[in-house]
């Protein structure tokens, strides 16, 4: 199953500055939820300081998550089951100063 990830608004700094990633996720009859995807991102994309992206099992407050341009809160958040060609966008709204 192909899924596209995007990191914007500073979130891309957590994944070596790469803003777009196309993943080919093997489902092996196990559904991919956003919760499972976040664990995969932590283990495979984030090089250091995962606490800047995750808090517990979810994204930190201040990171907006859109799935196919829809706020993930409307889709079930961590329980949303990914489908072929989903686009998952992470936008950091936190800015230092």
In short:
Belongs to the URM1 family. Helices cover 11% and strands 31% of the residues.
**Low-confidence spans: pLDDT under 50, at least 5 residues?**
none
The helix-strand sequence is EEHEEEEE
Shape field:
globular
CATH secondary-structure class: Alpha Beta
Main sheet strand line-up: 2-1-7-5-6
Structural class given helices, strands, pairing?
Answer: mainly beta
Strand content: 25-35%
Provide an overview of this structure.
- There is one protein chain.
- With 97 residues, the protein is mostly beta strands.
- It has a single domain, classed as Beta-grasp domain (Ubiquitin-like (UB roll)), CATH 3.10.20.
- Helix content is 11%, strand content 31%.
- The protein contains one helix and seven strands.
- A five-stranded mixed beta sheet has the order 2-1-7-5-6, with no helix packed on it.
- A hairpin with a 2-residue loop joins strand 3 and strand 4.
- The model has no long low-confidence stretch (mean pLDDT 93).
- Belongs to the URM1 family.
- Keywords: Cytoplasm, Isopeptide bond, tRNA processing, Ubl conjugation pathway.
- One of its GO terms (biological process) is tRNA thio-modification.
- It is found in: Cytoplasm.
- Pathway: tRNA modification; 5-methoxycarbonylmethyl-2-thiouridine-tRNA biosynthesis.
